[in-house]
Hints:
Elements: H1 2-11, H2 13-31, E1 51-52, E2 55-56, E3 62-63, E4 74-80, E5 83-88, E6 95-100, E7 105-111, E8 113-118, E9 121-122, E10 143-144, E11 150-152, E12 157-162, E13 166-171, E14 180-184, E15 203-206, E16 214-219, E17 234-241, H3 250-253, E18 261-268, H4 275-280, E19 292-296, E20 303-307, E21 311-313, E22 321-323, E23 338-342, E24 345-349, E25 354-356, E26 364-366, H5 368-378, H6 380-415, H7 418-427, E27 436-437, H8 440-446, E28 455-458, E29 462-468, E30 474-480, H9 485-498, E31 509-513, E32 520-524, H10 531-535, H11 545-565, E33 569-571, E34 580-582, E35 588-590, E36 597-599, E37 605-607, H12 619-624, E38 626-628, H13 629-645, H14 661-670, H15 674-677, H16 680-685, H17 688-701, H18 712-723, H19 734-740, H20 761-768
Amino acid sequence: MNIMSETKRDSFQLVHTLYTVLPMILIQLLLQFKTTESANNIIALPGCSESCGEIPIPYPFGIGTNCSLSKEFNVICEISDDKQNPFLGTNSKVKILNISLSLGQARTSNIISPQCYYKGRPYTSSRCDGPFYNSGCHDGTLADYGDTPFQLNTDKNKFTVIGCNALAYLRLGATTNYSVGCLSMCDSREALINSESCSGIGCCQTAIPKDAHRFYGDFDPLYNNSEVYEFSPCSYVMVVEEAEFKFRTSYVTTNELENATLPMVFDWSIGNTTCNIAQENKSSYACISSNSMCWNRSGGRGYLCNCSHGYEGNPYLHGGCQDIDECANENTCAKPGKCHNYQGGYHCSCPFIWRTNRNNPRECNLNIALVIGMTILLGFVTALSIILLYFVIAKRIKLFEKRKKEQLKQKFFVQNRGLLLQQLIASNEDSTQKMRDFRLHELEKATNNFDNALIIGRGGHGEVYKGILSDQRVVAIKRSKIVDQAEIDQFINEMVILSQINHRNIVKLYGCCLETEVPLLVYEFISNGTLFNHLHVEEHCSLTWKHRLRIAIEAAGAISYLHSSASISVFHRDIKSSNILLDDYFTAKVSDFGASRSVQIDQTGVTTAIQGTYGYLDPEYYSTGRLTQKSDVYSFGVILAELLTRQKPLISSRVFEGGSLIAYFNSSMKENRLFEILDPQVVNEGHQTELKAVANLTELCLRLKGEERPTMKEVVIQLEVLWQPNQHPKHPSRSQILEDKQLMVLDDNTGIDAMSIQCSFEQELRSSSDFSLSK
């Protein structure tokens, strides 16, 4: 609707100008001749002070001789607390906090009456001239406004009692019977509730009866705090403005209120007659501004003056009510209407082809009848206009959708901590591994709009797509299908960690895209799948022992780098064979840092929520919640057991009754049955001494107590020592890899029948296409 309205208005802009410019000029000329009252914002009589200190004193109140309407409204300006403060002339103890002309109210500072005891006996407070005794102290609580224009506001004030074992009453006069009262109880300091409201425990409140011109607070002598003086020395009675009073237990347990004051609200009015009677006597009628009106005080006690609708100021002064410029607020008239101010009001005018809304004069509606008439009259021109209008609307809708899409991208950018990414990119400008902030359209182009045919891995959390960037780099793009804060936090955590580390055996993060609800991560493309897929295939052959040992050394080196050589110490927390990727040359790449935790270099561990993969999870971390470097060592030990046995961490009960590879492995080690559980291919290709050494290292990594496990640096050293006798290059060529796949005949002394096993290259290519999304 907004797009249609804006477009139609643009189409008739020229005619609109011709029909509106001249009337607007005439209206502006007429407005120049309007008369107004004084532009000065006056609140007091000429020659009288308008304020005392920072408190405005509006007429009928006044400071000094002949500055107030009557002596009851006289205000005394005194120096107290090192500043000027106004006091009501009828009672010098009543300090004025503010005065409201429109409400006919005055907020004043009320005195609090205490009743105090010491060692079970009453004692004198600085508030009173003499001892309290059981009758208490009443200095400042008596207020008599019977013949004045003031009375206590019964809606905003509450009669309040504070203390333990304190019963007090409010009398509406010095000699009348008790009118209302309340009881505040507490028998111990612990019973007090610091809740800001009076609940009856340490503080109670009750409503005040109507027409309170005289009031007097008094304690009941049968109730006092003589038994609880050790933690509650004083009780207090007061009338206080309910909205400004917040109860604190310190009011009961200390003398904090002894010299304090709290606000209360008085109503005031002019005279004691109604508006009709007052208007008959022009000389005493108080509403003298020409733009004022009179209204009767509720209860029939006097009247008040207010400025008429559209005016503001002081109705008790000549020229006191001034016109309000409603047009100063740009929202007074709804667009495209124009606001015109006049004395006491305003009106909204509508431009050509618009008309005023009958139900809401502030709004303009399109004059459809006029538009139809002009359409018939113009004929061919209108037809062309409609065609033009169609294209304009289509363009605006397209622009609107584009702008909305950009706004959504910006929202996701901020939500996904885009500022943090920009800081990381800026801090890595001189680094060899530079991160990029990819735009969504770049990744859509690289993956043919995330074509399902390009999915190279699926997992419980999402998919991984193969893509080709504009610079011809082949990348893997991880996209989550779970939209929750935990998933976003894991993506951001992985982005932060990978941006600060650089190791040839850790998958490189090229950058990310934060323009989607869950960030997209862009990695280097690792073509040969995961270690898990190469080990646990249905065929009778797998990776050669030399490959397995080299992959173990590379993965261990990467984890050791994370623990002790990176700029920040990182605990991976999810080391498993499916998180070790292999490239074309079977080089290991550690991946998936979503669950990782970075810690200070000198920090040995961190307590955190349990997270990891069942079967690889450190039992000490699982039982204590304490994550350390040794937790990754345990998980790596599970991978070594996989490399030796080609069994999954959770094995079939047909293989081992416990269903756990670690229990199966440890049991075989204790019973000296190691070579019975090893992968026959490993037994055929490796030396017994070498295999026993790797098994012993595996057993050390799998110790229940983390302190008994080696560090990853020690693991690397031991594996490197085992590798040297092989004299194999750590990073073989493609031809060497193919040559190694022709397995040797098993050694006679292994006890296994000799056989020749040929691993097909086609099987290797087939397994290399499995690139699963790390969980």
